[in-house]
Amino acid sequence: MNIEMIRAAADRIAGHARRTPLLNAPFLDKIAGRRVWIKPECLQHTGSFKFRGAYAALSALEPTVRARGVIAFSSGNHAQGVAHAAALHSTSSVIVMPSDAPALKIANTKALGAEVVLYDRAGESREEIGDRLSAERGLTLIRPYDEPEVIAGQGTTGLEIAEDANALGIREADVIVCCGGGGLTSGIGLALEADAPGLRARPAEPEGFNDVARSLQSGRIERNARTSGNICDAIITPQPGDLTFPILSRLCGPGLIVSEDEALRAMAHAFLRLKVVAEPGGAVALAAALFRTDEIVGDDVIVTISGGNVDPAMFARALDSL
Amino acid sequence: MNIEMIRAAADRIAGHARRTPLLNAPFLDKIAGRRVWIKPECLQHTGSFKFRGAYAALSALEPTVRARGVIAFSSGNHAQGVAHAAALHSTSSVIVMPSDAPALKIANTKALGAEVVLYDRAGESREEIGDRLSAERGLTLIRPYDEPEVIAGQGTTGLEIAEDANALGIREADVIVCCGGGGLTSGIGLALEADAPGLRARPAEPEGFNDVARSLQSGRIERNARTSGNICDAIITPQPGDLTFPILSRLCGPGLIVSEDEALRAMAHAFLRLKVVAEPGGAVALAAALFRTDEIVGDDVIVTISGGNVDPAMFARALDSL
């Protein structure tokens, strides 16, 4: 895993992934007590940064391998990213989703061109289903974060942040990243190391699911006690990845932790001041910038909004938090 | 009023106004039956395209004139655009607003650095107040649309649309523009005439407030019977401008008309599929593309989302429309 892989991924996704801007708003600066710059990956295709990694991974496959199709386990943003990236490569995708996944997510994934295979969380193993389908059809598994080409794709976000920060004259700043398994955070960390060494990637996580912050503190991989029961579910994973953790450990941190209420309020501020839609997990970095100001140093802070796939009822709850 | 003024405005606003992208989403293409490209000016500074015209007008003033300050009549997007543009030019702005304007709009305009002067709609004339303040302090009036440099600033939106459409290989398409007094529509019309002559600007308006569509049809300026009582209030004006109408008449049309319900549904689709926040008046062009498909020709359609300054209650109503 190195910067050359990220640059190669950037070349492959150019013209396919959206080149998102850095947004800002004086009202947010006032709350944060410093300038806040927002990288709105909710505006990315399929509504999250996951499309970058999926497209990077698909485009790196040998064409005859890619032609046999790909498979992913996900009920969320990674599923949509893989489905859309596969369709753009004119190949097929199988997405293995739990049968109790929200109907809208299943419908969206199908509409993006994927074959959705449902499994019963209680009685079936998604890995067994995946292994069987992969063996039968020669499908390639696209992992959500512990996969070099996926990390390289997410890292292109960091190249763009570095380019824009340099253009703005920002030499030193924390770059707060919504963090699950660490694919986006580690990719951004590598990109910043190469192109904007005064910028430091820091993971943001929801309270009670701060496996990455704890792992960075202890120096070894720590697990979450549970992986559900928080509105930021899109960024909750059991533990940092085997590939991502060494990068996180070398380049990123310390972590920032926010509450569900703070994530909701950050969503409302993104609505009011930036006119973009953030999902709860996608708002934790902005929440940290707005409400954890004494844990951040410097005149500028950069945050990712990692996704915007939120249902109307949850969004209405966020608007009520103001 | 000519293309050179628009190019000069583009040079002046470069690095100050945001260069917004063209967004798209396969789900919207499916509804519309053609490719839909969205110019999200809700992502512009102050949440609407109005910042472009305000900044262009302020930056065109002779420095000693600009230093005395500017004045505008507006309770909405133009007010915020002028206030922010004045602050960026380190000069003062006076915004004359009705005393019954929403508290949030008054607060926002003040927070952007303006002096807000309230007047009583029933008993006072805002023009008299404006004339008195202008005479006393030497303020320059920035009109919302019937002002060459404002039209030039709004026209920069059209230069960007032309550039992106050319890069995408779109040679012929309707460009549907949310239309009030016609500043944005006429500016875009002029820019397209020069840089993308196969593209045609067409105004979109709310039902019952279709003064521009009727004016284009009759060939002379027609008035709205009333100027309130519609959720698309941000784009409702008494009639097309004296400067904008000849341009609209020569280059733009025919108009498209949408209902309030269609505007709300378009806001919900922008939320779900684009992850951007549109205000009702800012969603009429997208509504036309989605729900007036038989009045549009071609494989591609381009629409503006002109603004995103909507209060949470109205946005919740839009989400309920799905």
From TrEMBL, chains A, B:
Single GO molecular function: magnesium ion binding
SUPFAM superfamilies tied to this protein: Tryptophan synthase beta subunit-like PLP-dependent enzymes
Keyword Transmembrane helix: no
CDD domains membership: Thr-dehyd
The Tryptophan synthase beta chain-like PALP domain, residue ranges: 14-305
InterPro entries: Ser/Thr_deHydtase_PyrdxlP-BS, TrpB-like_PALP, TrpB-like_PALP_sf
Reported cofactor(s): Ca(2+); pyridoxal 5'-phosphate; Mg(2+); Mn(2+)
PROSITE patterns attached to this UniProt entry: DEHYDRATASE_SER_THR (PS00165)
The keyword Lyase is annotated on this UniProt entry: yes
Domain of life from the UniProt record: Bacteria
Protein's GO biological process: D-serine biosynthetic process
Keywords, ordered alphabetically: Lyase, Magnesium, Pyridoxal phosphate
Similarity section: Belongs to the serine/threonine dehydratase family.
Protein name stated in the entry: Threonine/serine dehydratase
